[in-house]
Amino acid sequence: MDKLRIQGGFPLKGSVTIGGAKNAALPLMTACLLTSEPLVLENIPNLADIHSLKNLLESLGVSCSLDMNDRRMTLQAQDPSIHADYELVRKMRASILVLGPLLARKRKATVSLPGGCAIGTRPVDLHLKGLEKLGASIELKDGYIFAEAPDGLKGADVAFPLVSVTGTENLLMAATLAKGQTRLLNAAREPEVIDLANCLVKMGAKIEGIGSDTLIVQGVDSLRGTTHSVIPDRIEMGTYIMAALVTKGKLEIKNASLDLLPTVKNILEDVGAVFEQHEHSFTVHAPHGLKCVNVITEPFPGFPTDLQAQFMTLMCASTGNSMITETIFENRFMHVAELIRMGANIHIHGSTAMVTGGAELRGAPVMATDLRASASLVLAGLMAHGETLVQRIYHLDRGYESMEEKLKSCGAHIERISQPDTVIK
Fold first, then answer.
1. Residue 331 and residue 372 in contact, taking contact as beta carbons nearer than 8 Å
2. Among 76, 120, 190, 221, which has the highest number of CB atoms less than 10 A from its own CB?
3. pLDDT tens-digit readout, 9-27
4. Catalytic site residues?
């Protein structure tokens, strides 16, 4: 099992190019199930989750051609299967996104309940209740979702009781082929949802209200293929911004737009970050030091939960006290114990972490528990004195492409250590 060895205390200097957004690419890939024509996706990131979903789609009979030299994927679902098997779906949460498109086009789908990071229950009931509103009959049995709509889905009003990104994406794709009008109320407004909606419109879908919390979809009989470029990964972008700040360095972030992180930009400026905008990039540093700021995670355009762990490491490097409140996932403080092992001063009270900045972090062996926790531990290793070993980095590979290579090119002392898995007899 691979691990990362990091020798901390070296400022990052240079440039980092941001890849395509994982959380945008995954729903875009499943959109291929809505048409028999080819869907071509550009700016595809080379990540474990992308390959996992590619394997799942291929198991459904989708033709998938991936050229990582050109960052280009071509998908064609001429006559997809309706059965998504447990062994493939269990690997990640986003696999549930095949349900809506399959049900809309094939009028029947059998999809295993999904797996993914252990950061909370993240129930799929919002997806299922929404599809039932559109006329589907759904049964849960033996770990599978059995859904069918023999006469096709029918438009309806679906009001989400709480904001759900994947729920919005699943229902949005399903509604494109439903008969009549569908209104998605309290819909997610994340850039990844907007990217999916824009691609669906290029495929022939009729969608109004893109970017708002009310999406109005007029169902059409069929969709066509198209070519679409995946937006930059705002979470990867935010992670490297914070990497520059915790190491007292200065980075140029390429293929990125701060418009994707409006609230984060404002908060980081309060922390002490200075941004210099260029045509297709920006630079970031903190020439006057860092100070602690309170944060509450919220749906877009609020502070994203996917940057909470990294921000906590940033607060450890800042002066003062910070309250970080997690409102999205109940188990997303699992990185705290590992940061404390390195010397961080953090106390948890319910859904709030109290961080006292300025503690000197020391390198230590630490264990990654999920994707974003992995990134927070890498940032901690970059700023800590001595050597840090980050274990279970297969989590990291799900969402960050060649992170150690990108950091090494900017002066980080980091290397990947590959070793065979230990078999316990």
1. no
2. 190
3. 999 999 999 999 999 999 9
4. 117
